[in-house]
Structures are given as structure tokens and as C-alpha cells.
Specification:
By secondary structure, the chain is mainly alpha-helical. About 65% of the residues lie in helices and about 5% in strands. The protein has one domain: Up-down Bundle (Four Helix Bundle (Hemerythrin (Met), subunit A)). Helix 1 runs parallel beside helix 6, helix 2 crosses helix 4 and helix 2 runs parallel beside helix 5.
Length: about 200
């Protein structure tokens, strides 16, 4: 994808997320959603795909240390993927949006859209795994927005279709992660109807 397409996919994914949040009933935020998260926790975790871009852009890194979205996920799995910590981050983010989730999500969607308009593709974000160019980091956030918005929609009973470019980004990353983990043959055979996948099959964790 070109830089423009990567940006467009991220913004589409952000609109997908905000659109689902807009449809959550006022009494729907406490329903079970994903693991130990309720819908509000999951929405809070997902909205960090906006706030993290904003915060990591505040102090640019000096050099590029992670070159690709897949490289980011691999490093994150190694150093940041403590399930208890991730769960706690989600709950904390859920509390940030508790008063008015729809307003908070729409507000930060606009903040990040405006911020992206100011930043060049090669701007080096200071992400926890090491410096990354903006255009290399965004696909990982698109992936998170797509997957977790689908989780949220299912939890609250909203019928929502992910936008095409954003889903393309998610599928590309899934394929690349499957290659890295040696799971690509199983994924290809299952996707072409040759056999099913084991219940534990997961290319991201």
C-alpha cells in the first residue's frame, strides 16, 4: 500500500470504530465483551489506537529501530504482552471514557485525524518497542481497530461491516504473522476449504 492508502485505511478503521460506539445503548456498556473486559473496557482499549498515536508523536524518536508492522507486533509480544497488564490498561482506558464514550471516541478520532494531517510519513514515533516511522506504525493500529471493533460489535449486538481497505490491512498483517510463526500452510489450507483449524489456532498470541 502507498502511504496515502495506509493513512486512508487507518482513518476508515477509526470511523468504523466510532460508528459502532455510536450505536451502543446507554445500558450496553457493562455487557461481557472480550475475556475479562466489559464493552466499556474493550472500547477504552480500542480507543487507545487514537490516543497512542497522539502520545507517541509528542516526542519524536531519534532513529528507526522497528521497520515494519510485523516487527512491531513481534517485539510487542516479547516485551509488552503481559495479559494482566494489557487487561489493566483496557480497564483504565474504559474509565477515561466512562462519562460519555461516544463523545470521547468521536473527539479523539478527530484529534488524531488532524494530527496525522500535520505529520509526514517518515515522522519517527517514539513507541514502546523503539522508534518507528508513522507510516510503518499505522497498520498495527488499523489492525487493532478492525479486530476489536468487530469484537465490540458482536458483544453489543450491532451489525457492522469493516471497511474494505482497513480489512485488507488486517488480512495482510495476519498473513505476515502466520508466515513468521510457521502457521501459513495451515491458514492457507483452511482458507481454501482443505481442512479446519484447531480451536487454539492463533497467529497473534
Amino acid at each position: 500500500m502507498s502511504g496515502q492508502e495506509i493513512r486512508a485505511a487507518y482513518l476508515e478503521a477509526g470511523e468504523f470504530f466510532a460508528g459502532v460506539v455510536d450505536q451502543v445503548d446507554i445500558d450496553g456498556w457493562e455487557v461481557p465483551a472480550l475475556g475479562e473486559w466489559c464493552a466499556r473496557d474493550l472500547a477504552g482499549h480500542t480507543y487507545r489506537s487514537f490516543t497512542n498515536v497522539l502520545s507517541y508523536a509528542e516526542k519524536p524518536a531519534d532513529k528507526v529501530e522497528v521497520e515494519t508492522p510485523v516487527g512491531y507486533f513481534i517485539k510487542a509480544f516479547e516485551s509488552l504482552a503481559d495479559p494482566k497488564q494489557v487487561a489493566e490498561w483496557g480497564r483504565a482506558a474504559g474509565l477515561e471514557i466512562i462519562d460519555d464514550p461516544k463523545m470521547m471516541v468521536r473527539g479523539f478520532q478527530m484529534y488524531v485525524k488532524n494530527k496525522l494531517a500535520e505529520l509526514p510519513d517518515d515522522y519517527i514515533l517514539n513507541v514502546p518497542t523503539g522508534g518507528m516511522r508513522l507510516i510503518d506504525y499505522l497498520p498495527s493500529r488499523t489492525f487493532e481497530l478492525v479486530i476489536h471493533t468487530m469484537d465490540l460489535a458482536k458483544a453489543v449486538g450491532v451489525d457492522a461491516q469493516p471497511p474494505e481497505k482497513a480489512m485488507e490491512t488486517a488480512l495482510l498483517l495476519l498473513g505476515q504473522l502466520a508466515l513468521h510463526r510457521g502457521l501459513a500452510p495451515d491458514l492457507v489450507l483452511a482458507a481454501t476449504g482443505r481442512h479446519g483449524l484447531p480451536s487454539s489456532f492463533n497467529v497473534v498470541g
